[in-house]
Batch of 3 targets.
Target 1
Amino acid sequence: MVNMAIAKFRWRRWWSAVSLLESWLSDADIEEQKTTGAYLIAALDRDRLSDHLFFPDEMKGKSW
């Protein structure tokens, strides 16, 4: 009986997570994603302790 209750709880939690992810995908705003991605790349490269970039321009479209 307890195992069945745990299984139902896990199933509901899993289904809620799947539903949330699907809602994020369906509400996708391509321009917002591009803007956010460009900001994140710039922030990661700017805050480095070395001159080596995580995302060099010459690798754009090849590795990321």
Target 2
Amino acid sequence: MEFSLHYCNGHVEVFDANGRFVFSADNMQEARDDLREMGVPC
């Protein structure tokens, strides 16, 4: 599954391939770490 990461108001929002919000993170590294924990290679 593909995800997109976007900066928004000082944090990072993660959306799935259909544009649905998945989670937010404080920064890009945290978002990537959280995706890896979900089993997403990035």
Target 3
Amino acid sequence: MIVLENLLKPFFSISTLLSTIVMVIMVNVFKREEAMEIQKTYNSLWSGFEILLFALVGKLTMSIMLF
């Protein structure tokens, strides 16, 4: 998406985030079963990343408080 955006930037501007949102909506509309499988996969991945995120934020907060 970013490569496509960079190629088309001289002609017109495309927001990568906006295009990603549109792709997700299109997958939800036309391929509902596949969208549900993708959602299950990312939900399980999110659980692990959520733990990592809050651990890193906690570590950063403790580092800031020590200074």
